[in-house]
Amino acid sequence: MNVAEHQAHPEHQASSQREVDFLAIVADEASASVINNLILDQHISHAQARVGTFNETIALIEKMEHPPRQLIVDVSDSAMPLSDLTRLAQVCDPSVAVIAIGKQNDVGLFRNLLRIGVQDYVVKPLTADLLRRSLTANEPVMQVRMGKVLGLAGARGGVGVTTIGVALARRLAGERRRVVYLDLNLHGGSACSQLDLPSNNGLIELLEFDARPEPQSVERMLVSKGGRLAILSGEHPYGSEVPIRTGAVAEIIDTLKRHFHYVLVDVPARAGRLTDEALHAANHVYLVADRSVHGAHECARLVRFVQELPGERSVSVLLNNPLEPVAGRVSASDFGDAFGRLVACELPYDPKALAFAENLGEPVNRGRQHSGFRGAIDALVREMTGAQHTAKTTQPWYASLLKKPGRSA
């Protein structure tokens, strides 16, 4: 049964108008038939199965705004299945449960696949019983994949932490990654404004929970910007403090990184336990400084603080130019001498592009001439993801899965 026939089945007519929760793309008709029979037998909703290649699977997942919750992939024809599934992991967000099927009955391969986050590996020929056991297995035998947590903090106020963070979030989402922006400025940060979104005060509600919030509670508090970018923020009244339970920030970040490729955390530099927990949870910390003596001094203090935190994380310095360059500022070369290889890049003074983007809630450089700031952000994102763009000249078979309800291709 092909995709069109499956969607025409009465039990699955609604599925064609909604996101696919269960998706299987396999190399042969016999495997596809077994999976389709299981879908019908188990009444699995919003499910599709069909024949296709592994590369087509990756291309489809890259283009889907909302990936399936369960994904079956076929590595039967792969010369390097571990390498191919690692490529898939780069485009699948951590919440996707991946089951691989193949021909090799190899214990070493099975263990390596579990190590990179594959839920199970099933050896062909497929049977309904084998597949059913794999889909319903509850034991956490695999290593759970996690998204990357990027902390951004300013050496001083007004250096452009949120501007840089929002630009990075937009670009990462544009690279087909699922991204969440966690704005820890509890009395109202500017991230929502820059994304042209309202704040629902969801972060404050989560921080006031007496115990660790359930993943469903965290998900309800997110405000979405399209299918791949979301924000979690709060606007607590001025003059009052948020009662933050010890470990609450770390728990929220831990939940988010299980469902997003990237968690960008906008960290106030001097917010006590909130700052400590956020930086401690980060895989990589970006410290933003301007070309001032005070900025350099405070940046050095922050570098030492982050490096002395328990655990392992990398640190980079972003040298931003939020003010017009004038004589007397610390030179970029002096900054480089002071921080060495920690300086990841310098972002140029680019007032027109940034003012337009921030005030209208649009991406930097949208519909305008190339901006130096956008170029620096692009370079940072390429370094983070290694993303490469390939042009497609023909419409692939999976194009129908990407259609929006009521729209034609």
UniProtKB/TrEMBL annotation:
Sorted UniProt keywords: ATP-binding, Nucleotide-binding
Pfam families tied to this protein: AAA_31 (PF13614)
SUPFAM superfamilies (alphabetical): CheY-like, P-loop containing nucleoside triphosphate hydrolases
Cited InterPro entries: AAA_dom, CheY-like_superfamily, P-loop_NTPase, ParA/MinD_ATPase
AAA domain boundaries: 148-309
A cellular component annotation (GO) from this entry: cytosol
GO BP term, pick one: negative regulation of cell division
A GO molecular function held by the record: ATP binding
Protein's name according to its UniProt entry: Fimbrial protein
